[in-house]
Amino acid sequence: MKKYGIVALALLFMVSCSKYHVKNEIKDSSVLSKLKNSGIIFRFPGSSPMKVPLFSKTLSQWMDSYAKVNNLVILPAADKSLTVAKTEFDLFLQMTEDDDYLYYKSLGILNKYLKDNQEALQKLIVDNGLDSLIIYEVDPALSAEMQYNEFSSMIIIVNQDLKIVYMDRQYDDFETNEYDKEIMYNHLLDEINSRFLDMMFKLKYLKNK
């Protein structure tokens, strides 16, 4: 119990101190404030070093440290069409070679995803008694040899009708003196979890117990 308390305190400190470069693209505050039962879906590139089951497990452990204002539920979406982007051109986050954000291209890919998977997504909503879905897309990378890790991500929230009521984007890289790939992997996993929790606090879906 004492060890768990120390871990929870460390996670709280990380969330409170985390600063990510997040840009809001769509935010309907009047709808967001009313959502109380949101299901969470993770989406990664097929080539990602991180896999959905591990990420689901660790984020669930993090969320258990906080009180839920929105009854956030991680959904075991086994359908790869929901959780895997086959190529970089299927990712929601689209950038030019000069790192300029392609808003309409991103929105087009996202709307196609919602349309192509409408039946599966709405089944998740109905079967789990949800009023919304939160899609967390993450594109991570790390290199022990070059001593860096990085990730870009988007958080998208859609209502019961699969209308987009929130969309943001983020990119951050982290230098490190670490050469141990496992330690770097765990650190990157913590950063990705923290980025999500940070936004859940800002949206007032989580609070301290």
Helix content: 25-40%
Element order, helices and strands?
Answer: HEHEHEEHEHHEEEHE
Number of strands: 9
What does the overall shape look like?
globular
> What would the average pLDDT be, to the nearest integer?
86
Any idea what the radius of gyration is?
17 Å
SSE class: alpha/beta
- The CA-CA distance between the termini, in Å, is 16 Å
Largest sheet descriptor:
7 strands, mixed
- Work out the helix count: 7
Question: Could you tell me the strand content as a percent range?
Answer: 25-35%
Unreliable segments (pLDDT under 50, ≥5 consecutive)?
Answer: 1-17
Describe the protein's architecture and organization.
The chain is of the alpha/beta class and 209 residues long. The protein is built from seven helices and nine strands; from the N terminus they run αβαβαββαβααβββαβ. The chain has helices at residues 2-17, 29-32, 52-63, 80-83, 103-116, 118-127, 181-202; strands at 22-27, 38-45, 66-68, 73-74, 84-85, 132-143, 148-159, 164-175, 206-208. A hairpin with a 4-residue loop joins strand 7 (148-159) and strand 8 (164-175). Helix 1 crosses helix 7. The longest helix is centred in the last third of the chain and has 22 residues, at 181-202. Residues 1-17 have low confidence and may be disordered.
